[in-house]
Amino acid sequence: AGRANALSGTTARVALAPVSVTFGSVASGSGQSATRTVALTTLAGSGPYTVEVTNETGGGVDFGATISGSTITVTMTTSKRVAAGNRQGILRVRSGGTEIAHAAIYAFVK
To answer: What does DSSP assign to residue 46?
Structure first.
């Protein structure tokens, strides 16, 4: 929020660091799992916050997310028969059912 709407950028309720999550290159057929963490900083208001990953593209790679305190843990799990290509999803942070932040998630299966 904020790039296309300046008001949203100046009234943000939380900040995410980093602002996107990448798992880099993943070997096809590896059945690999990995995690990354994202720090959530409250700028205005308060939680509780919920997280989920939506808009996943491709198949054979599953992204997930959990939150504990101010730390979001993003997971990636690949199947052993995943085809090469780009995989992505959107990490969404919500408060009271309203989306208040989002971040891109990416992996490249080679």
So the answer is: -
> Which residues, listed in sequence order, are joined to residue 26 by a DSSP beta bridge?
109
Which amino acid is it at 23? Answer: F
Q: What is the dihedral of CA 94, 91, 102, 89, to 10 degrees?
A: -140
Per-residue tokens: 89: 């999803």
**What residue type is assigned to position 107 of the chain?**
A
Interatomic CA distance for residues 30 and 5, integer angstroms: 41
The two tokens of residue 102 are 């989002």
- Locate 62 and state its tokens: 């599953």
Phi, psi of 45, rounded to the nearest 5 degrees: 75, -160
**Each residue's pLDDT tens digit, 40-59:** 999 988 889 999 999 988 88
Q: Above 80 in pLDDT, residue 104?
A: yes
Residue, of 61 and 31, whose pLDDT is higher = 61
- All residues at 6 or more sequence positions from 46 whose CB lies less than 8 Å from its CB, including other chains: none
Per-residue pLDDT for 67 more than 80? yes
